[in-house]
Design goal:
heterodimer; A: 343 residues; mainly alpha; ABC transporter involved in vitamin B12 uptake, BtuC; two-stranded antiparallel sheet; 13 helices; 2 strands; B: 343 residues; 71% helix; 1% strand; globular
Chain lengths: 343, 343
């Protein structure tokens, strides 16, 4: 948003007078949905026989899923914000990270944390190679770059299918996270690993925020997001910053894959489904906006879980549809997402 | 004078191509006619709706398979479950696709470039999940036993008449879209593609042009859906999954996104490889991805672009060739119509 002076504001007619109506309607619909969920949750009181324990578990599922979405989406939004590249191979890099960690933990018996680190490096390196070989000289041609990354994702996904087969497999979690954690209410317990996933997402978000606002690297990145040519003219090696951003973004996709492979499972086709959810998260928040990605991840994770659990039974199989309706509705009202900058 | 000769030459060449194509059912085996012929023709029709949108409107859409599915599944449902006459069912199916296209276009027309690609991806997913969930349309099973009109014969046993019908529809669609591109509306649409801001300043309603362009392509995709349901005698949600949407995009890109005929060339190449290369290599998708990548990197005009630049080169080398740019209509810039119209 450009800051306008009072005089300028008075002289220009307000161009989007209709926006509040649509936004209010959207908020209303969201509030109604949440009210419906809460009504069902607290329907039978707070007792152990009531629906509250299930509600807590479903909310935790939604929150931890949101963490997973945020980890993979933060890489996508970093790359888009800085390079203006919509990396549609993000899902393939995500799956690659998962499979590399799987191999290292299962076959080489490696420590989970080390495997996760190596998997991140592998995804990051592949992303970096794709950027240097195919994308670097196409800067500014965003549709062509999107098509290139689609082609790359086709190749990567097929090669992974050839190497790792089609049977879904899961990575064994690190030992001290393998036991469920007692929550202390209603005798509930919850997988420790999924909570660790949420903590990791918060850590990634915090780290991003600190680097963005407190370091010189972050300053250069922010300058690059706003105007990469000007930043380059000021003597910053923008190409190097771009390469690093692509490496970090792809590595985050790999980290997401490791988490997803441990908490859920790995299978062909997941590259596309996670790419699509990462895109939804990023687009809902506005591409390039980290806070938007966090909000988008939260929305998507909760809507996904609540819709699956609380929609009337005859509509329950439509829950997958809901997230895309959400996306289309938000884009129809705000074509660049909630916090997106018009470019 | 040379111009007129060249026009005659082009028309003659086209006529020869058409005659050769029409002879396919007579000369080739039933398997080839139905497997390669029918598939590449309907795939070409759905791809050309995308080629039209992207080449003349600057809108790279992934929602064409959704419209394809709406028409195909509505037709299948009406003719199988409700016992309608196939022609009437097809008409209603295509009208339904057009109505949905109008809705999609109205929602998406505010977005440009990469945002347009992603909002149409959301539409594709909405349609997929809807049809996969709703029992009226057979859910995941789909609808089997779709009977084409009796006049067209059995598409499996005796595909000749079906093939000629599809060929005739293809020619009509090609001529129709080419005609549209030369009308005042088509020219304005190309103006909107190249510079929306300037077109708006000239008094054109940019958004309306984009909506109408999108709606105009919808019945084309819808017709392809009906023809596909007739050719395969079945249709299911799986026929419109994200993988298929990307396949249509791949076929259109390989053929060439800025020439209408490229759609059929790409579809034919894809179908030929799909039919004959699969037995030869396990990693068919990898090779498809490699071809896609090479085409996007080397020749944004696709195979058709390659052929026409080769022809121009030859004409220049041949004695006596004065070689004006002989390509009759290559209106679009190379594939990537950058999203930054406002930049």
């Amino acid at each position: 948003m450009a800051i306008q002076t009072a005089a300028a504001r008075r002289s220009t007619p307000r161009p989007r007078a209709r926006l509040p109506v649509a936004a209010t309607a959207a908020v209303l619909v969201g509030a109604l949905g949440l009210l419906g969920v809460l009504l069902q949750a607290f329907d039978k009181g707070l007792g152990t026989e009531g629906n509250v324990p299930t509600f807590i578990l479903i909310t935790l599922n939604g929150l931890t899923l949101a963490g997973l979405y945020f980890i993979s989406a933060s890489g996508l939004t970093l790359i888009f914000g800085l390079l203006r590249v919509t990396n549609l191979a993000h899902g393939a890099l995500f799956l690659l990270g998962g499979y590399v960690a799987l191999q290292l933990v299962q076959d080489a018996g490696m420590n989970w944390w080390l495997a996760a680190l190596l998997a991140m490096a592998a995804s990051g390196l592949v992303g970096l190679v794709v950027h240097q070989l195919f994308l670097r000289w196409n800067q500014g041609q965003d549709l062509r770059q999107a098509l290139i990354t689609i082609a790359v994702s086709l190749i990567l996904a097929d090669q992974m299918l050839a190497r790792f087969g089609a049977t879904p497999t899961a990575i064994a979690p690190p030992e001290f996270l393998a036991q469920p954690l007692s929550l202390g209410v209603y005798d509930l317990s919850y997988p420790r690993f999924r909570i660790a996933m949420l903590v990791a997402a918060l850590a990634v978000g915090l780290l991003f925020w600190l680097v963005y606002t407190r370091t010189r690297v972050g300053m250069v990145v922010r300058a690059g997001v706003d105007d990469s040519q000007m930043t380059s003219a000021l003597g910053v090696n923008v190409q190097k910053v771009f390469a690093i951003a692509f490496f970090v973004g792809s590595a985050l996709a790999g980290l997401g894959g490791v988490f997803a492979g441990t908490a859920l499972s790995l299978a062909p086709g997941q590259d596309q489904s996670f790419l699509v959810s990462a895109l939804v998260v990023v687009i809902v928040g506005g591409m390039g906006s980290l806070g938007g990605a966090a909000l988008g991840a939260l929305l998507l994770g909760l809507v996904d879980q609540y819709a699956g659990a609380y929609l009337p039974a005859e509509y329950a199989n439509l829950s997958a549809l809901l997230t895309f309706v959400l996306l289309a509705a938000i884009l129809a009202v705000r074509p660049t997402g909630l916090f997106g900058k018009a470019r | 004078m040379t111009n007129r000769l060249q026009t005659l030459g082009t028309r003659g060449a086209l006529a020869v191509v058409l005659v050769v194509l029409a002879l396919v059912p007579v000369v080739c085996t039933t398997f080839f006619t139905s497997q390669v012929g029918l598939t590449s023709l309907w795939l070409g029709i759905v791809a050309v709706s995308l080629t039209f949108l992207s080449g003349y409107g600057g809108m790279v859409s992934l929602a064409q398979t959704a419209l394809f599915g709406v028409a195909g599944l509505v037709t299948a449902r009406l003719s199988v479950e409700s016992g309608w006459d196939p022609w009437a069912a097809a008409l209603v199916g295509i009208l339904a696709a057009t109505a949905v296209g109008l809705l999609f276009g109205a929602v998406a027309s505010g977005s440009q470039g990469i945002y347009f690609l992603i909002i149409t991806l959301a539409f594709a997913q909405v349609a997929y999940f809807y049809f996969a969930a709703v029992p009226t349309f057979g859910a995941h099973e789909g609808i089997n036993g779709v009977r084409p009109p009796a006049v067209l014969g059995d598409p499996v046993q005796d595909p000749a008449r079906m093939y000629w019908f599809l060929l005739a529809v293809s020619v009509l669609v090609f001529l129709g879209l080419r005609h549209v591109s030369r009308t005042a509306f088509g020219l304005a649409l190309q103006g909107v593609r190249d510079d929306p801001v300037r077109m708006a300043a000239l008094g054109y309603n940019v958004r309306l042009h984009r909506i109408l362009g999108f709606t105009l392509a919808a019945p084309v995709a819808g017709a392809a859906g009906v023809l596909s349901a007739w050719s395969n005698t079945r249709m299911s949600a799986g026929s419109i999954s994200l993988a298929i949407a990307i396949l249509v995009l791949t076929a259109a890109v390989i053929g060439g996104l800025n020439r209408l005929e490229g759609a059929w060339v790409g579809a034919l190449l894809y179908t030929l490889c799909d039919t004959y290369l699969r037995g030869w290599t396990d990693r068919f998708t990898t090779w498809l991805g490699v071809v896609f990548l090479v085409i996007v990197l080397v020749s944004p005009g696709g195979v058709v672009g390659l052929v026409s630049s080769a022809a121009t080169w030859l004409r220049r080398r041949l004695p006596g060739g004065s070689a004006p740019p002989a390509v009759p209509s290559a209106p679009a810039p190379p594939v990537p119509v950058s999203s930054g119209g406002a930049r």
